[in-house]
Write a structure and sequence with these properties.
The complex is a heterodimer. Chain A is mostly beta strands. Chain A contains no helices and 11 strands. Chain A starts with a strand and ends with a strand. In chain B, the strands form 2 sheets. In chain B, strands 2, 4, 5, 6, 9, 10 and 11 form a 7-stranded mixed sheet that branches. In chain B, a hairpin with a 2-residue loop joins strand 5 and strand 6. The chains are: A mainly beta, B mainly beta.
């Protein structure tokens, strides 16, 4: 049972525009969410997190939005840069120690 | 500050063999989690260790096992290897306390079964 879903396998965006990556979850007990970026041949790199007590968290060009009623979160990257081209994973947890990951969205930023 | 270190980076085995993968967490991190990544499946949780005890376990068969040492280093063992075990195995560490905090990943061990 896939508790975290990323329904868009890929996304292409022009450099300088906004990238929006989406993630849905089914477990209403999840209260902590993470986004990771992964380049080929490297491990995932932590980007940004959000706790269920918030609906938005910002870190530089990255903003994560959480809609608990819809069980949906999204990652906004503004402005998008070619170096942002990677696979992005979202993950959720209700224990803080066991995370459920989506299958990833491959982002391509076109110069 | 050194990151999470996984060894070896690449490994080739044949069906029926067993394999041991190693993970050294970030200094001060007491929680180590293991994940299996296969194409189209994302990261599947294997298990998590904290203070030498398995604290959480995913839905993998008993052929997959692990342990954690007093210095927080962890090993994962897979016995009676099957072709379907070919995957990238990722280790992640975190402080492991009661506060929510992100996990930090190593670069993984690429295991190929022939």
């Amino acid at each position: 049972d896939q508790q975290v879903k990323q329904n868009s396998p890929s996304l292409s965006v022009q450099e300088g525009r906004i990238s929006i990556l989406n993630c849905d979850y089914t477990n209403s007990m999840f209260d902590y969410f993470l986004w990771y970026k992964k380049y080929p041949a490297e491990g995932p790199t932590f980007l940004i997190s959000i706790s269920s007590i918030k609906d938005k968290n910002e870190d530089g060009r990255f903003t994560v939005f959480l809609n608990k009623s819809a069980k949906h979160l999204s990652l906004h990257i503004v402005p998008s840069q070619p170096g942002d081209s990677a696979v992005y994973f979202c993950a959720g947890s209700n224990t803080g120690n066991q995370f459920y990951f989506g299958t990833g969205t491959s982002l391509t930023v076109i110069p | 500050k050194a990151g999470v270190t996984q060894t070896p980076r690449y490994l080739i085995k044949t069906r029926g063999q067993q394999v041991t993968l190693s993970c050294s967490p970030i200094s001060g991190h007491r929680s180590v989690s293991w994940y299996q990544q296969t194409p189209g499946q994302g990261l599947q949780f294997l298990f998590e260790y904290f203070s030498e005890t398995q604290r959480n376990k995913g839905n993998f068969p008993g052929r997959f096992s692990g342990r954690q040492f007093s210095n927080s280093r962890s090993e994962m063992n897979v016995s009676t290897l099957e072709l379907g075990d070919s995957a990238l195995y990722l280790c992640a560490s975190s402080l492991g306390g009661t506060e929510d905090q992100p996990q930090h990943f190593g670069d993984g061990t690429r295991l190929s079964i022939l």
